[in-house]
Amino acid sequence: MSKAEVKKIILGEFKAGSAIKAAVKKKPEGVIQNLIDSGIRGRGGAGFPTGLKWRFAANEKSKVKTVICNADEGEPGTFKDKLLLEDHFYKVLEGMAVAGFAIGSTKGIIYLRGEYAGMLPRLEEAVDDFKKKVLKKAFEFDVKIRLGAGAYVCGEEFALIESLNGNRGEPRNKPPFPIQKGYLEKPTLVNNVETFASVIHITVNGADWYSKMGTVNSKGTKLFSISGDVKKPGVYELEMGTSLKSVLELVGAKNTKSVQVGGFSGINIDKSEFKRVLAYEDLPPGGSIIVFNEDRDMLHVLKNILEFFEEESCGQCTPCREGAYQLLKGVRMIEKGEKSVRYYKELVNLCSVMKDSAKCGLGQSIPSSFLSISEKFKDEILFR
Asked: I want to staple 176 with a disulfide (CB 3.0 to 4.6 A). Which of 181, 190, 204, 296 is the partner?
């Protein structure tokens, strides 16, 4: 795509209750097959096929299942889910209800980021209104909201579930997966806020309509939180496959040095790669795009990212707990001119160990920013 075109699909007009009516007509298997045919993948970052996940949940032989909306939007630079919760909450609720109908669940939980506590009373009021005016007597489905405590790691689905279970928010080993043994040790479907807000449109308009947008492996549109050195920051809905270059033009970025794509857990892109596209087969479309211009010191950017990860590591596994600390310590020593190129190579080797042995995505993703920034800006970082 040569130009970034702002879409109005997820954020567009939608008649409340229309997805519920369409779901009832399609029946559970029809709803799931429609999502599979559409090609939609989870909008939380991992990109697992949504319809396939719902089918796995539907196939679980349990009378008790739970639908969880992951609203723990803790990735730095991401604020798209906040927009959905504030201005399009009924879409999220209807998406959860459709999921409950499809997998055979009568219970939904929204795990709300602790820092979003201010919107809790209004959201709870909206839930009551939704059940009375939209859900009515279509089928039984109840929604509760639970508030997190501000832990970044609880964006990971099992850490989130452990928190809901009243335990310390820590990842578990897989398998079993949440679909098999999640909340209260029962089958649990976990999807992101944006995923639930997207599936209602597919349920109403059909798989063919949706699959015509995007790329072969990345269908539909996606919300991106764009911030940093730009004239027009904000949340943009773009078609999958949009080039980063066209996005920078859209938001009025000038003299751009690099872009952090996918949040702190994503990768850093320099000028030579701005023609790459936002899609699962290329740049990680996690939802956060942070732009840095030529005035930014990339060592300071890297140190800021590592300070965040060192603080937010849950400490459960050694590779993440000690690895984040050692990487940050190393960057601070390089900043002071106390370490050599040889020491930098030792930090690169540490990154390899962390990727292979950290227990969850948090520890496994820390090396991504370190490697992408330090390798692209090695002269700026090592030879100050």
From this structure: 181
Instruction: Answer left, alpha or beta for residue 237, where phi above 0 means left and psi between -120 and 50 means alpha.
Output: beta
User: Token pair for residue 1?
Assistant: 């795509």
Answer whether 229's CB lies under 8 Å from 292's CB.
yes
**Residues 57 and 203 placed together within one structural domain of the fold:** yes
237 DSSP β-pair partners: 223
- Reduced to 3 states, what is the DSSP secondary structure of residue 269? strand
pTM of the predicted structure, to 2 decimals: 0.95
Angle at 284 between CA 281 and CA 287, to 5 degrees: 135
In terms of residue numbers, what domain contains 41?
18-211
pLDDT in tens, 306-352: 999 999 999 999 999 999 999 999 999 999 988 778 889 999 999 99
Let me know: does 280 contact 220? Beta carbons within 8 Å: no
Q: How far apart are CA 343 and CA 355, in angstroms?
A: 19
Pick the closest to residue 261 from 277, 246, 272 (CA basis).
Answer: 277
* Whether 351 contacts 322, CB under 8 Å: no
Contact 369, 268 (CB under 8 A): yes
Output the DSSP codes for 306-344: HHHHHHH--S-SHHHHHHHHHHHHHHHHHHTT---HHHH
Could you write out the DSSP letters of every residue in 161-195?
A: HHHHTTS------SSSPTTTS-GGGS-EEEEEHHH
- Indicate if 106 and 182 belong to the same structural domain: yes
Sheet holding 267-270, edge to edge: 234-239, 221-228, 288-293, 256-261, 267-270
